[in-house]
Amino acid sequence: MGLLSFAKSVGAKIFGGSEAAPAPPDELKKEAEKHGLDLSKADIKVEGDKVILSGSALSTEEAEKIALAIGNSVGVSKVQNDLVAANAITESKFYTVVSGDTLWKIAETEYGKGHGAKYTLIFEANKPLLSDPDKIYPGQVLRVPPLTATV
């Protein structure tokens, strides 16, 4: 799936992590699992401020959400997502939130003018990592699924 970049100074504060370094692998795993994600066949390795994911996930969506749950935490600047999806579909794009963004605005940017109402697709694609469509923050990385795909 590739290398994703994150703002290491923002995101979830996980026990053992700081801006200087991510939390230990077992704590990162707990963070993803608390969102209902299955990491039973995934391995997590931390090298400096980079996290490497390997193994397998149930689906492309699950693999992407695992990377986001871990990457959107303090201390992580990059996630190398090498998870293999058992049920592969077209991969999502990833979007880094900037100041002033809303999910509507992101939908208009990614899907084209007149598609702001498709923000619900982006919100659904990021559940349970997002609890409310109005609670996004600068530096956060979100999944943006293709318009033709289901979340």
In short:
The protein is of the alpha/beta class and 151 residues long. 25% of the residues lie in helices and 24% in strands. It folds into two domains: 2-87, no CATH class; 93-144, Membrane-bound Lytic Murein Transglycosylase D, Chain A, CATH 3.10.350.10.
Strand content: 15-25%
Which of globular, elongated, flat, extended, rod-shaped describes the shape? globular
Output the number of helix runs. Answer: 4
Q: Count structural domains.
A: 2
Domain LysM: 93-144
Organism: Methylocapsa palsarum
Domain BON: 19-87
Protein name: BON domain-containing protein
Description:
With 151 residues, the protein is of the alpha/beta class. It has 2 domains: 2-87, no CATH class; 93-144, LysM domain (Membrane-bound Lytic Murein Transglycosylase D, Chain A). It contains 4 helices and 7 strands. The strands form 2 sheets. Strands 1, 2, 3, 4 and 5 form a 5-stranded mixed β-sheet that branches. A two-stranded antiparallel ribbon has the order 6-7. The protein is globular.
Please describe the structure with a list of short key phrases separated by commas or semicolons:
151 residues, alpha/beta, Membrane-bound Lytic Murein Transglycosylase D, Chain A, 2 domains, five-stranded mixed β-sheet, two-stranded antiparallel sheet, globular, LysM, BON domain-containing protein
